[in-house]
Design brief:
By secondary structure, this protein is mainly alpha-helical. It contains 15 helices and two strands. The model is unreliable at about 1-5 (pLDDT under 50).
């Protein structure tokens, strides 16, 4: 039997079983991803129901509603918040990933990065609320050492939203950056220093180009969930900190405008898809460059 399995005919038969192996995954994606997405697409082109739900009448009113000035303002605010939070996250994650790659205690450091995932998301948000609140740990500490005379409003503003978002998604940026930096040949940095480059110049011109795929992945893993954030702006932000995720929830539960909520969701999905496609395109170009360099070397 083993001899038959190793023959070209046996290998061909195993290749023919590929669709059968992929079947369960295809069914899973269809039921839990494609079907809900199709419902959102259809609902975005329907008419708002009189009380709740939708009327099965084709309409573009939901997409026209996207041009509402207040919604455009929230969209712009969401993009700016996501960009700032992502930038700060990457700035923090890069040295962390570099230090972990150079460390001999990688397992311990990885464990410390993973530990926050063991705690519920909302519990971590409420912990920050207890730290930043008017009667929270930070205000009590500053009052006790005489730095301030009355409690400061650390909560319910844009800065609190960005701070908590950065905390929440730093691990998502550190892990892909660590994976890329760990594969990097650090002797290249030493060679650059020998040729007269400063430490910062060597990192920018030698390290960063070689870990580009990790940077792309880290940006994608942080920007997309931050762009669609709902719980953090709701709990630690004020009225001026509303983001698109909060608008979707309000349209579903308060205004009962399901088509508009679906149209906004389509915007988020489109941005996510474009981001994934851009990252995949960059990675393909980078892989092609490496292949060409290896081919030229041979």
């Amino acid at each position: 039997m083993s001899a038959v399995g190793t023959t070209p005919l046996g290998k061909k038969n195993r290749r023919n079983l590929g669709p059968l192996y992929a079947g369960p995954v295809g069914i899973w994606l269809t039921v839990f991803f494609m079907a809900p997405l199709a419902i959102i697409v259809v609902y975005s082109f329907l008419t708002k129901g009189r009380y709740v739900g939708v009327q099965w009448i084709f309409s573009l009113s939901a997409y026209k509603g996207l041009l509402n000035p207040s919604l455009l303002t929230i969209t712009f605010h969401t993009i700016v918040t996501a960009i700032i939070a992502t930038f700060i996250t990457i700035v923090i994650a890069l040295p962390c990933g570099y230090f972990m790659a150079k460390s001999r205690n990688q397992t311990t450091l990885l464990l410390l990065i993973i530990i926050p995932f063991w705690t519920n998301f909302l519990i971590r948000v409420f912990a920050w609320m207890n730290i930043l609140g008017n009667n929270g740990f930070l205000n009590e500490f500053l009052l006790s050492i005489g730095v301030i005379k009355e409690a400061l409003h650390f909560l319910y503003n844009q800065n609190a939203v960005i701070l908590v978002l950065v905390y929440m998604y730093v691990p998502y940026a550190i892990l892909p950056l660590f994976s890329s930096i760990d594969k990097f040949d650090f002797s290249l940095l030493e060679a650059a220093r020998d040729l007269g480059a400063t430490k910062i110049t060597a990192i920018v011109k030698v390290l960063f180009p070689n870990i580009r795929s990790g940077i792309y992945t880290a940006v994608l893993f942080t920007f997309i969930p931050i762009f669609g954030a709902y719980a953090v702006p709701l709990l630690v932000g004020g009225k001026e900190s509303y983001m698109l995720g909060n608008v979707i929830a309000d349209q579903l539960t308060k205004s009962r405008n399901w088509p508009l909520a679906s149209a906004i969701s389509m915007v988020l999905t489109t941005v996510t898809t474009i981001g994934v496609m851009v990252m995949m395109g960059m990675q393909k170009r980078e892989s092609a460059k490496h292949t060409d360099v290896k081919g030229a070397g041979k």
